[in-house]
Automatic annotation (TrEMBL):
Belongs to the beta sliding clamp family. Confers DNA tethering and processivity to DNA polymerases and other proteins. Acts as a clamp, forming a ring around DNA (a reaction catalyzed by the clamp-loading complex) which diffuses in an ATP-independent manner freely and bidirectionally along dsDNA. Initially characterized for its ability to contact the catalytic subunit of DNA polymerase III (Pol III), a complex, multichain enzyme responsible for most of the replicative synthesis in bacteria; Pol III exhibits 3'-5' exonuclease proofreading activity. This is Beta sliding clamp. It comes from Liquorilactobacillus hordei DSM 19519. Residues 1-126 form the DNA polymerase III beta sliding clamp N-terminal domain.
Length: 379
């Protein structure tokens, strides 16, 4: 096996594939990166059994300047190989595999020799023969991931909550995540037949890695779903993720249908106020911020008190306030995550009672995006 390639273009593919490689895997060969060279181009594969990423560098790609001299395949220790490639002195590199998978890497005056492994022992990637293919615009997919993955659980005690629940029904895609303290739900209409239905749970970690890989040069992402795997395809990259097994909780019943108090904020202005208040809440023992709404005097005030350090109080700007007076305490980190997902838009926050969950929605479109936060009991 022997090829020459542009180093910087090779690093881009290498970086993508490395997202799937973990040093903690119980299968030793999966700490490695598989390279398969054919006349048509070079395929790089990485996997940790949960996520598998495969990217292809075509021989005709002018930027990559790939020259195929002798086809073959090898598995190389990903961490060491990646560090070597990034430190090489020249714009191009030559890789050659000789007897017993000994691998020579040459660039300018630098020469490395590292041990490789037999690629025949590398696990085969899953085959997905789904009949229906979904085509999603990349910016919409990234937005859905960014708005929902913030609410997935990091606790392995309830594995099902570490994923995002995706359901497709009647031409609508619904994505929802909750860690039982907060919830995020996004709905969009997609261009599929009404007969196409799916109900799957994708690990939040998989979606986070996928989102990082979808660059500005990606227009559309092709999605195929099988019984226990989902496949995302874009440009020359294929991203596989296992699906979580089990039934996701019925989250619709958690979302209040009405409210006693509503207030409209500019999301970015309110976020700045929460960030100031959380400076003290983070420094103290209890990470809590309190919001007091007085409808008669049309006042909204935010407080944070840390006995060890001090306190902060700020009167807030808002567009509209109606309903009953209320004082409510919450985790400011949950609020900040929720507010960031709305960007610059105006949002409506709806409350029922000091210990009942409250919701945040864009004022212009209250049907398709909702964030829910459970208050904190402070007495």
């Amino acid at each position: 096996m022997k090829f020459t390639v542009n180093r910087l273009e090779f690093i881009k593919s290498l970086t993508d594939v490395q997202r799937a490689i973990s040093t903690k895997t119980t299968i030793p060969i999966l700490t490695g990166l598989k390279l398969k060279l054919e006349a048509k181009g070079l395929t790089l594969t990485g996997s940790d059994a949960d996520i598998s990423i495969e990217t292809f560098i075509p021989a005709e790609d002018d930027k990559a300047q790939l020259q195929v001299e002798e086809p073959g395949q090898v598995v190389l220790t990903a961490r060491i190989f990646s560090e070597i490639i990034k430190k090489l002195p020249e714009d191009t590199l030559t890789l050659e595999v000789t007897e017993n998978y000994q691998t020579e890497i040459l660039s300018g005056t630098a020469s490395f020799s590292i041990k490789g492994l037999n690629a025949e022992n590398y696990p085969h990637l899953p085959e997905i023969n789904a009949e229906d293919t979904l085509n999603l615009e990349s910016d919409i997919l990234k937005q859905i991931i960014g708005q929902t993955v913030i609410a997935v659980s990091t606790q392995e005690s309830r594995p099902i909550l570490t994923g995002v629940h995706l359901a497709i029904k009647n031409g609508q895609l619904s994505a929802v995540a909750t860690d039982s303290h907060r919830l995020s739900q996004r709905k969009i209409a997609i261009n599929v037949a009404d007969s196409v239905t799916y109900d799957i749970i994708i690990p939040g970690k998989s979606l986070s890695e996928l989102s990082k890989m979808i660059g500005e040069d990606v227009a559309q992402v092709e999605v195929r779903i099988s019984e226990n795997q989902v496949l995302f395809e874009f440009n020359n990259t294929t991203f596989y993720s296992r699906l979580l097994e089990g039934n996701y909780p019925d989250t619709d019943r958690l979302i209040p249908k009405d409210s006693d108090t509503e207030i409209d904020f500019n999301a970015s202005e309110f976020l700045a106020s929460i960030e100031r208040a959380s400076l003290l809440s983070h420094a103290g023992q209890n990470n809590v911020v309190k919001l007091a709404l007085n409808t008669e005097n049309q006042k909204a005030t935010i407080y944070s008190n840390s006995p060890e350090i001090g306190n902060v109080e700020e009167e807030l700007k808002f567009q509209k306030l109606a309903g009953n007076d209320i004082e409510i305490s919450f985790n400011p980190d949950y609020m900040k995550d929720a507010l960031r997902s709305f960007g610059q838009s105006t949002i409506t926050i709806s409350f029922n009672a000091p210990l009942r969950p409250f919701t945040l929605v864009p004022s212009e479109d209250q049907e398709h995006f909702i964030q829910l936060i459970t208050p904190v009991r402070t007495y």
